[in-house]
From TrEMBL:
One of its GO terms (cellular component) is extracellular space. It holds the Pfam family Metallophos. It comes from Pseudomonas amygdali pv. lachrymans (Pseudomonas syringae pv. lachrymans). GO terms for molecular function: hydrolase activity. Residues 116-328 form the Calcineurin-like phosphoesterase domain. The lineage of its organism: Bacteria, Pseudomonadati, Pseudomonadota, Gammaproteobacteria, Pseudomonadales. Signal peptide: none annotated. PANTHER family: VITELLINE MEMBRANE OUTER LAYER 1 HOMOLOG A-RELATED, VITELLINE MEMBRANE OUTER LAYER PROTEIN I-RELATED. This is VOMI protein.
Length: 563
């Protein structure tokens, strides 16, 4: 990875790194890396990171520290060369006005690593719960080239300083750059084996098949992504990026190692993991090395993976993405993922990293940017929601939809609330004129916050209905009229809701037509936290034909864990 994130260089074993130089990147790339910041951030009083006492502010149960790009031995000279490139100075994000770092000229490449991770270790040791409660995650580019002496120093130093509860992924400098660019692919091979050997116990997506007798062949296959649960927060490490695939081998006298690297999106591993997290009521954050550069390609396969990845992020409510790759772009980064915030942690040469405060009870995550390896002066980047995915069964699972109309927007209770009441809007019988029956359903969260989806335009609300005590709604049943052929169609004619205690509460509005369909219930342990409705739009008033309006045609309930 380059500090600009646009040019990548890799070399064979034995290359004299003192002769290594970077070349200017495109001005567009320079400006892109430093532009903008996310606008939909809720700023709250920052009171967590500045104190390292044993007890955190109310609600915060742990911190997660994110770093990236130790990239040993990426030197101060290379760092300074990169900073001086181009005809124009870097355009820094307004959130990340990095201060002058003259100190980087006074330390060795080894001390750049020691200084950063010693600062991290000192801070988390004094934070609530200590080292065991506050994990450190390093998002890739562990070394510059994957050489044996680089990996030996880097992992030995991290083991010595951090000791335990630290995790990492691989970046382009660890394996991608080194395939066919290092003798016998030894750099990529050993980096992959470091990852599998050190992180493989965290339910990693890979398998190993061994064959042969005198000469053994070990075939590794999988995405090598893995996950780790910290309380109710699931951290998923995707390594370089979700699209990266490759195959390479390294052959020795007694052993040949083959690596078939797959995409966790293409092979289904990521979606299965997100489904599991949703069903367990777990919040999800994702880590990778490069969160943005891979999204710019025009390659059809990569674009298909990107489309699927964005769909998964939205469908399963991923809360945030943490990454590295761009050394000088630490902080909030313009997200290419349609509303999922992206945070970059910088590099050891830039002396930047991130601290997050995890508040599961309020479903919030606070993010802080640390500069100059000094947590006490960290900048508060904002408070962001910890989102929880909900289950929306397909329509035919509970026979709840008519034949007409389109689904409206999903409506969901604010964080920490659930649905416990409702009201129904229905049109009274019209005699020989067109009947529409139920036109709208309004759901209420338990502090009387009203939720609305798509609605028809006729009728009046029939009356507020509520589950007893603090019980949530956990199911519903629709009364529906089948197609009437040339007759007057109405679709949904009434509705009942099921409370946690098993009580069924009927709407005040009802009709003499229609039949009750199957009752849908949330999965065990879940309650209603949102819904959406299907409504047929107004059919107009054409004197030359009979315009049959049906209004409400169906409902879907969104279920999640009760706060």
């Amino acid at each position: 990875m380059s500090a600009f994130g646009f040019w990548d260089f890799s070399f064979h074993e034995g290359f004299d790194m003192s002769n290594y130089r970077l070349f200017p990147c495109a001005l567009f790339s320079t400006l892109l890396l430093m532009c903008g910041c996310v606008s939909d951030v809720k700023n709250e009083s920052p009171d967590a990171v500045v104190s390292t006492g044993g007890v955190g502010p109310k609600g915060i149960i742990r911190h997660i520290i994110f770093a990236s790009d130790p990239q040993y031995p990426w030197s101060k000279d290379k760092k300074n060369t990169e900073d001086s490139l181009g005809a124009l100075p870097h355009q820094q994000s307004q959130d990340v006005l990095l201060q002058s770092r003259s100190s980087v000229n006074e330390v060795s490449t080894e001390d750049l690593i020691r200084n950063q991770y010693s600062a991290i270790q000192k801070w988390r040791a004094g934070a609530m719960g200590g080292i065991g409660n506050n994990p450190v995650i390093i998002n890739g580019d562990m070394t510059a080239f994957g050489h044996g002496e680089e990996r030996a120093f880097l992992y030995g130093t991290l083991d010595s300083i951090l000791s335990t509860n630290w995790y990492f992924g691989l970046g382009n400098h660890d394996y991608k750059n080194n395939i066919d660019s290092c003798e016998n692919n030894g750099c990529a091979r050993d980096s992959m084996e470091d990852l599998a050997g050190r992180m493989g116990g965290n339910r990693m997506d890979y398998s190993v098949n061994e064959s042969g007798f005198i000469h053994t062949t070990k075939k590794y296959s999988g995405s090598f992504a893995y996950f780790k649960d910290f309380g109710r927060v699931r951290y998923i490490q995707l390594n370089l990026d979700p699209s990266y695939t490759n195959w390479f081998y390294s052959s020795g006298v007694w052993t040949t190692n083959e690596f078939d690297i797959l995409s966790p999106v293409e092979n289904g591993w990521l979606e299965n993991l997100l489904i599991q997290a949703r069903d367990n009521g777990t919040f999800v954050i994702i880590g990778m090395h490069d969160a943005e550069e891979w999204t710019r390609t025009s390659d059809p396969r990569t674009q298909a993976i990107l489309t699927k990845f964005r769909k998964l992020l939205k469908e399963y409510d991923v809360s945030a993405i943490f990454a590295g790759h761009f050394h000088t772009a630490a902080g909030i980064y313009p997200s290419p993922y349609e509303g999922v915030p992206v945070f970059l942690s910088g590099s050891a040469t830039e002396e930047t990293f991130l601290i997050t405060d995890i508040d599961e009870s309020s479903r919030k995550i606070s993010v802080w940017l640390v500069r100059n390896n000094t947590p006490e002066t960290a900048q508060h980047l904002g408070v962001f929601p910890l989102k929880q995915s909900v289950k929306t069964p397909p329509t035919d699972e509970y026979d709840n939809a008519g034949s007409w109309g389109t689904w409206g927007p999903s409506a969901r209770c604010p964080s920490g609330l659930y649905i416990n009441a409702f009201d129904v809007k229905g049109e009274k019988w019209q005699g020989d004129d067109d009947d529409t029956a139920v036109n709208a359903i309004v759901m209420y969260c338990h502090d009387d916050v009203g939720l609305r989806s798509k609605e028809g335009g006729w009728g009046t609300f029939s009356g507020y209905r509520k589950c007893p005590a603090d019980q949530a709604i956990v199911g519903f049943q629709l009364k529906m009229e089948p197609r009437q052929g040339d007759g007057d169609d109405t679709a949904v004619d009434s509705v009942r809701f099921v409370c946690e205690g098993g009580q069924s509460i009927a709407a005040a509005y009802d009709t003499s037509y229609g039949v009750w369909k199957k009752t849908y219930r949330c999965p065990a342990g879940m309650v209603a936290i949102g819904f959406e409705t299907r409504v047929e739009d107004y059919q107009g008033d054409d004197d030359d034909k009979y315009d049959d309006d049906t209004a409400l045609n169906g409902m879907r309930m969104k279920c999640g864990s009760k706060p």
